[in-house]
Automatic annotation (TrEMBL):
Gene3D superfamilies: NAD(P)-binding Rossmann-like Domain, Spore Coat Polysaccharide Biosynthesis Protein SpsA, Chain A. This is Hemolytic protein HlpA-like protein.
Amino acid sequence: MEQLNTPVVFIIFNRPDTTALVFEEIKRVKPKELFIIADGPRENNTGDRTLCRKVRTIVDDIDWNCKVYKNFSETNLGCRQRVYTGLNWVFEHVETAIILEDDCLPSPSFFSYCEELLDRYKYDSRIMTISGNNFNSDYDPRNEGDYSFSRYPHIWGWATWKRAWDLYDINMSIWPWVRDKGFLNDILHEPEVVNYWYGKFQNTFSGKNEHSWDYQWILTSWLHRALTIIPRVNLVTNIGFGRNDATQTTQLDDLLSNLPLEEIKLPLTHPSLMIQDILLDQYTEQHIYKIQNDSKVLNVTYYKERWLELKLFGNDILQLLRDWGFSRIVIFGTKTIAKGLKNEIDSSNLDLVAFIDNKISLEKNFEGIPIFHPSWIEQNEEKFDVILLSIEGNHDLQVKKQLVDYLKTNNKQIISWKEMILYIDDLANKLRKIEEIEE
């Protein structure tokens, strides 16, 4: 095999077994330049000190003509800072790089695949990531080439350019502006996809995702309208799932664990058009990120956060119901949100007629209000104007359909608390725009 011209970056820590497997594949292609980034042992972790030393011994076994650069930290920086500072260091020296972590096992053709595409799109700012990952083996790409274009920059074995990495902002300093101006809607369009990524970005910005560096890379890519190249077959498999020392990949039965490796024929057949494959991305959203955008199911965690941020347990929710012309309310569900809704309705001139719950077969009370089985609405439509769904699970549509089946007429509204938040969110954005114009 000819020696690989493109620099390879190998990010290591404390896993000798996976490190050895991945390093063997790097040795097969004999890169002319090898950058090794190592994190240091965690404080007061004697096991880490031993394992880190062993890992660094493994990558010392270089038996080919190669210029080696080492960036070894003696203290533990953590995944976020180690990747960030390490890649900053790499791109101070080179313009392109193929990047592997110690649990990302590549197929032999992965390296040549990356090298060919790094050269082809070297000056094309529309591309920021070349991924070795194809998580969607059931999806048949629509183009005629050996790869497709996606908005999702998968990074379990990838390649990029200095021109792209220079745009990276680990602190997400622009996120509050993007968030508050609603630009995520302009990028992703689908409300449930927006909600999912809103939660990921907000948690990362606030420090809840303390290990994350890749969500920042996703945001950077999207804000520059960049595309990712996805191979027709899977060229890298993650072998780090299910380990106690894994940072994020801890479930052995994860859909992405130990995906089969394939080879790609070279030279590559290139697509004739550079168009984002929307169907590929929808497949990714549904099957990889579990965003159920085909049924418009919304992310519960996001809405709970927005519920608090918008202070819906106050005059906003009551005014919303009044604006919509509702005065006699039925609530489906008897949990936390239902109780919160009841408390607000109690302080208004609205009338809470009843609660409805599938688990109730006989008439009972909840918070002093009668609770009925859904079949109650068949004979009592004249007693209420609207049914509010307070359920917290991802089954809003199923419940709506069930309740519609009980209704004899179509003039009764069934509204989920999430839809109320969407409405308030939209209203808040409109009010902000009006204030900006007035200023």
